Amino acid sequence: MALVRLQSILGQTQAKALLLRSVDKGTVSHAYIFRGPSGVGKKTTALSFAAFLNCKNRQKDDFCGVCSSCMKFASENHPDFHIMEADGGSIKIAQVRELKKTLTFPPFEALYRVVLFPDIHTTMRRREVANSLLKTLEEPPANTTIILTADETGNILPTILSRGQIIRFVPLQSYEVSNKLQELKEVGENEARTLASVSGGSLGQALFLADQELLNLRRLLVDGIMDLDRGQGEAVERILSLAEQIAGLKERIYDFFSLLRLWLRDLILLASLMGEDSIVNHDLRHTYASALERWDVSDLFHRLAEIDNAKKLLERNCNRLSVCEVLLWEFL
Fold this sequence. Notes:
Elements: H1 13-24, E1 31-36, H2 42-54, H3 68-74, E2 81-83, H4 93-102, E3 113-117, H5 120-123, H6 127-138, E4 144-151, H7 158-161, E5 165-168, H8 174-184, H9 189-198, H10 203-212, H11 214-226, H12 235-247, H13 253-271, H14 285-294, H15 297-315, H16 320-329
Parallel strand pairs: 1-4, 1-5, 2-3, 3-4
Helix pairs in contact: 4-6, 8-9, 11-12, 11-13, 12-16, 13-15, 15-16
């Protein structure tokens, strides 16, 4: 997890302002819950805030980045910053007990010892683990701040929620994600805009989709469909080849289906005369005219239903390749 200057973190203006104000007023909470969509900077902000709390040359709105404390945070080697990583998918009660033992001692060198529990909506589902942490969350040792992160839709035990100050994180603006993608990845403007739109304001999700090259396969499929009809001799060979590639995605196939749904959603909006301002698949603009000549709104909704049906069949462990072949035939 790279250390990022607080003012360089994308968006989250309100969340950063609340945290900075707490330091300025001397009201740093004993426990924070950073809650919001995945991939919008919760863990990045937690690390940056920990560095800010302990910076030896702290500025009003950021850490200096060059003092001994900042350098240790940057190298992921600060003795008073602890990340409670899941062991086999969840936090174990033994880990919490070991942490509580560590917290009986004062910080090694920091002004604030900071403990980060990432993704507690998935890593802290066992009630006995959460209960073992409650006393520490409510009354941690002096100079200790605990930060928990969680997705907005994830389930968190009410006893945990009641013991920390909730800091809300929001989806990023599409242009922020697009610009950052073009900075970090070798992607064109249209692809970056598409990734930003389909990720729902999550830079993490956009980076994941870019790395998986799901967008390229989706574009290959859509272009292939638009060039074929059932009567063409090459249709069978093309469908079988595309179905094999999609089936090879394994668990990523659900992300692929979501992308395909978004293309159909764009077509439905255009067919309903909603205008191009509402579309998200900017790199597939060239397909809209031919698709709308081929299908009306009822056809498009039928294909949405077929995608949903394919997902249900896969969840029942039906043959992945056969499910993909049947689905693609429905698009011709």
